[in-house]
C-alpha cells in the first residue's frame, strides 16, 4: 500500500531558488522515494502567471511522486493541511532601503503566513524559512503561530554550513563527508561564526590541519561573505546551492542524521544564546526532531563570536517589535 500524499508548500515559487528546489523536492529527495506529495505553490498575484509556467514544466517532468500541483496567492488555503513549508518568497532589498525597512517589509509577509500555518497546518508541520533576513523572518512566523510547537519553525543556515565544509575540504585536501563536527553559529549574515573547534577529519582535529591565521583571516570571512562573492562572480545571487541546502535541511529533519549539521532553531537558552532567538546551532536529527548538541565547553573566543550574532538578532527583533 502506498503512503497518502503529504502537502508541501513552496512560497516564492516563481523565483530563482524555487526553480531548482521544486525539481529536487518532486524527485523525492526530502521524504524519499515512497512518499507521494501534493505541491502547493504560493506566490504574489503578479507572479501567478509565471508560476503557472513553472507548474507546466513540473508537469512535463512527469514525476511519479507528484500527485497534484496547486497554485495560489492565498496563504490561508495554501497552508491548510500542509506538512511542510519552504518559505522562500521574500521582498528583495530595493534602492535606498535601510536594513530596518527590509526587515519590516518582509516581516509583513511572515505574520500572515505564520497565522495561516497556525490556523490550518497539519500536526506534523515543518517550516524552513529561506527568505532573508531568514532568522528574524522565522522568529516572526513562529511568534504568529502560538499553537504550533516553536521548534517546528527553523531558518536556513545549511548553506553556510555546506560552504564551510567545502572550503575546509579544499584546504585540507579531503572530501566533505570526511569532515565531522563543524557548525556555523548565529545569523545568516556577516556576524555568523563558522566554528572548527570540534571539527575532525579521520579523528584528527581540524585545528591541527589548518593555520590559525588562515582560519581567522580567510576561512571565517570567506564563508560569511560567500553570498556576496557568488553575486560578484556569477552576476546573480546563490540559487541552486541555496535550493540544495534547503533540501539537505528538510531531508535530515525528516529522515534523521547522527552527523552534526547546522540549523537555525529557536534557542533554549544554551550557550549564551537568548532563549527564543532563531539562531544557527549544532544539531543532529533523531525521530523526526532536531536535537541540540549539548555539553560543549566554549572558549572565550567562541563566546565572543556567538555573542556578536546574538546582539545582531536582538537588534533585528527590536526593529520588528511591532510585528511580534
Ligand atoms: P527571487 O527574487 O528570484 O524570488 C523571490 C520570489 O518570492 C518572487 O517570485 C516573488 O514574487 C516571491 N514573493 C515575494 N513576496 C511573496 C509573498 N508574500 N508570498 C509568496 N511569494 C512571494 O529570489 P530568490 O533568488 O529565489 O531568493 C529568495 C530569498 O532567499 C531571498 O530573500 C534571498 O535573499 C534568500 N536567500 C537566502 C539564503 C539563505 O541561506 N537563507 C541564501 C540564498 C538567498 O539569498
From TrEMBL:
Annotated keywords: NAD, Oxidoreductase, Tricarboxylic acid cycle
Domain annotation Lactate/malate dehydrogenase C-terminal: ranges: 158-318
Record flagged with keyword Ion transport: no
Alphabetical list of Gene3D superfamilies matching this protein: Lactate dehydrogenase/glycoside hydrolase, family 4, C-terminal, NAD(P)-binding Rossmann-like Domain
Ranges where the Lactate/malate dehydrogenase N-terminal domain occurs: 7-147
Catalytic activity: (S)-malate + NAD(+) = oxaloacetate + NADH + H(+)
Pfam families: Ldh_1_C, Ldh_1_N
Keyword field contains NAD: yes
Domain of life: Bacteria
Primary enzyme class: oxidoreductase
InterPro entries: L-lactate/malate_DH, Lactate/malate_DH_C, Lactate/malate_DH_N, Lactate_DH/Glyco_Ohase_4_C, Malate_DH_type2, NAD(P)-bd_dom_sf
Amino-acid positions noted as binding NAD(+) in the UniProt annotation, renumbered to this chain: 12-18, 106, 113, 130-132
Membership in a protein family: Belongs to the LDH/MDH superfamily. MDH type 2 family.
Job description of the protein: Catalyzes the reversible oxidation of malate to oxaloacetate.
This protein's name: Malate dehydrogenase
